[in-house]
Every structure is written in C-alpha cells, then in structure tokens.
C-alpha cells in the first residue's frame, strides 16, 4: 500500500513507519518537525515538512494513497492544561484539515493514535472500550473529540477508521526511540539517572490507593504497539469506525518500574518522593481483549524488555 504517516518523525510514528517499510509498504511522512527529528524518519520513507493544514491536501492530491496513519499531535498532558487552545487547534484543528483532505481526495482509510487519557479517572480496571470517557485534561479531551469526528466521518462520508487507545508506550526499536526535548515520561527519566544525565528520579506521590502508594500504569512495548497498527490498517472498513485499547493488561507501580530499571542497568538510581503530579489517575490498566479477539493482536514483550530496549537505545546515542 501507499501510506501517509503524519508525525512519522516522532517516537511512535518513526517506529511504525519503519515497520510499514519492512512489511513492503511505501511510506510518505508528513511532519512539521516541531517535536520530531528529520533523522528519525526511516530510510526509504519520503519526508514532507509541513503542517497538515498546509500540506495534507497537496500531498494526498492525485498521488494514489491507500490510507493514512495519523500520529502527529501535541501530547504533553501538563502543557495541555496550561495551553488548552494550542491543543484544540493543533490536535482537533489539524486533524479536521487532514480528514477534509482525505474526503476531497477519496482516501478512505485511517488509523488514528488515540489515548487512555480519553477515559480520565476510571471507575474500574481493566478499562473496557465501552467504559465512560471523561478526560481530566485538554490533551485527552482533544483526542476524544477526534475519535468522535472519526465516527461522524465514517457515518457521513464512508471513511474507514480505527482508533487505537494507547496506554503507556515504552521501549525502542533499534535506532528508533524516545528523543523528547522536554522529557516527562517515567522510563526515560529513570534511565537518564542511570546514564548520568540526571541526578535522581522524582516519584510523584506515594499516597495513592495502590499497593505501594505510587501510581500504577499499563506499559506496552512500542514494537507490539506498531504491530497493532499494521493489523488495524488491514481492518479499516469503509463506513465503520472502530476503537481498540492497546496495553499489556498488567499494571506496574512507579516503584516497580524504577526497580526493573535498577536491575537492567545495574545502577542504584536514587529516587526522591515528591508531591503528586496534578491530573494523574491512581491506576490505568487496559483490557485489550477486544483487539485480541477481533484482530488477533497479542503483546509479546514485557516490562523488562521495554526497559532494556530503551536502555540500549539511550546508550547507543550517548
Ligand atoms: N512519574 C513519576 N516521575 C517522573 C515521571 C512520571 O513519578 O519523573 C509517574 C507519573 O506520575 C505517572 C507514571 O509515572 O504516575 C507514568 O507517567 P508518564 O508521564 O510516563 O505517563 P502518563 O501515565 O502520565 O501518560 C501517558 C502518556 C500520555 C497519555 C497517558 C494515558 O504519556 O500521553 O499515558 O494514560 F495520555
């Protein structure tokens, strides 16, 4: 297939672009490089630099694309609370421009990066796709709005869409890994201590109603996540919008993650306990039963593998 990958210069987009190329697809990456890196775009993919508003129509027009994988987004929860307008504009606004361009050019399949943040504070775990969606921050709200837009575009214009609701993505795929300028995620921050670029890790709160008092999350390897995109692509059915959770179904606390990082790196990794980070739910664990039964996807990598792949990636860049 000929595929447009928006955000293909970012962490997850670059991994999936690499996997798509290996599967024999042709890939064009559209990325404004606001947070991505041109050298993260895999060899064999063409990079078009620009926003979706400026370039999506131009790129799709008459070029014979079969489908779009849409990763481009602003994705920092804290920043979204500080600058909600930016998130609505860049996430929903740019996605609408992309969908309009798809409609105009007759490209009718899309796989979209949604998020567990659409659920907000869950009433129960593991979270099912049918559970209430009450995002607690603008980031989650914008992604939920795009999911709703996809449902409408499927109904009104026959688009075939799949939204994948990622839980906590981690790990690396060879030379493709996390390279955020502002790093907020737990695993890269913990590994930065082992690499000597940070002094200690901050544990955001240990008074949560969890076994060790720290937040519990469902970590999924970026390679497993990528494989789900290839399956989702095959499952896009015109006129239908499907939503799937993507996680491993196991919860690990912040303290457990730090412990695995200590074991993998052999570094003591000093940790300090600080206050809670606003907006963090205590426990987020996915039920991925739906994608397992409908698309035959299965996670193959555990937390230790995610940490050791992320560690190898970090060391390769040192
Ligand atoms: N944490 C720390 N110290 C740190 C960084 C994180 O204690 O230095 C804690 C957080 O408080 C949280 C856990 O580690 O409890 C995981 O935090 P991350 O920032 O790695 O990930 P989040 O769970 O906050 O967010 C991730 C994605 C979001 C997405 C969300 C959905 O980054 O984009 O999952 O669940 F919205």
Automatic annotation (TrEMBL):
Cofactor(s) essential for the protein: NAD(+)
At the top level of its lineage, which domain of life is listed? Bacteria
SUPFAM superfamilies to which the protein is assigned, alphabetical:
NAD(P)-binding Rossmann-fold domains
Q: In which pathway does it act?
A: Carbohydrate metabolism; galactose metabolism
Molecular function terms from GO = UDP-glucose 4-epimerase activity
Query: GO:BP terms for this protein?
Result: galactose catabolic process via UDP-galactose, Leloir pathway
Cite the EC number: 5.1.3.2
Name the family: Belongs to the NAD(P)-dependent epimerase/dehydratase family.
- What name does UniProt use for this protein? UDP-glucose 4-epimerase
Question: What lineage is on file?
Answer: Bacteria, Bacillati, Actinomycetota, Actinomycetes, Streptosporangiales
